[in-house]
Amino acid sequence: MSIVDVDPYLARQWEKWLKLGSSSARDHLIVAYAPLVKFVAGRVGSGLPASVDPGDLVSSGVLGLIDAIERFDPQFGVKFETFATPRIRGAIYDGLRELDWVPRSVRTHAKDIERAIADFEAVHGRSPSDAELATHLQISRDELHRWLSAISTTTVGPLERALDTGAVPQPISGEVPVVPAAAMEEREVREVMRAEIDELPDREKLVLSLYYDEGLTLIQISRVLGLSESRINQIHAKSVLHLRARLAAAGVA
User: Fold this and answer.
1) What is the DSSP letter of 172?
2) Cα(32)–Cα(241) distance, rounded to whole angstroms?
3) What values do phi and psi take at 57, rounded to 5?
4) What digits encode the pLDDT tens for the residues 61-112?
5) Whose CA is closest to 81, among 116, 43, 29, 27?
6) Cα(193)–Cα(253) distance, rounded to whole angstroms?
7) Which CA distances in Å does 245 have to 19, 80, 237, 249?
């Protein structure tokens, strides 16, 4: 069993770990790949408020790194960094949920906007504009944009995690066994989610598509659409809350 694209020292540590299960070799690998954790944590942390301790992100990321080392099989021909990065990122997102770092005021505003969107659509049968949403909330349009800007810092990670905005975080308790019924339910939820995304206003739908499907950053999306990054952040936050409201109306928790 061989490891490609690594220096001789790392190759020896991998050999000791994979063949002998040497805990010392595993510790050396954790140290060797620590810069990868710091890099991923830095990318995730760049969109978060200053109140979030970067050290907490790194600590969570190390758990993802350890999991990746223990699960890695070089026989599949994938570089370890490629294999490990999504696991490190996922562990950081899960750590954020456990930290409950979202300020209560931001969570409250997220719920208020979601409820206002649902109420407006129930009455008018269409999506509200920013001006109409602000009027419904009895705040100014500028205040609404300030709310959305604050909420935008909480919509990190994959869409499923972004949809947790405003919800009380639940503890992560390891992997959930996949059974056929659960897998079918997940597929059905995704189908409903995709159908509800298609019903969003064009600009909100486009931002979600570019961000989650095409993998563009919010800065790149701002350049594509010719809008400021702050405005794209607001549209993204509103689209996530809008989707949450539509999913709730469709009976999807």
Assistant:
1) -
2) 40
3) -65, -45
4) 999 999 999 999 888 888 899 899 989 988 988 887 776 667 788 889 999 9
5) 29
6) 11
7) 51, 39, 12, 6
Contact by Cβ (8 Å): 154, 52 = no
Length of the chain: 253
Which band of pLDDT confidence, cut at 50, 70 and 90, is reported for residue 154?
confident
Query: What is the pLDDT, as a whole number, of residue 242?
Result: 94
Are 117 and 133 within 8 A, CB to CB? yes
Taken in order of first residue, the domains within the chain and their CATH numbers are 8-99 (1.10.1740.10), 104-249 (1.20.140)
In the block, which residue shows the tokens 């709730």?
248
Residue 60 CB neighbour total at 10 angstroms: 24
Q: What is the pLDDT of residue 243?
A: 92
C-alpha–C-alpha distance, residues 121 and 124, integer Å = 5
What pTM did the predictor assign?
A: 0.61
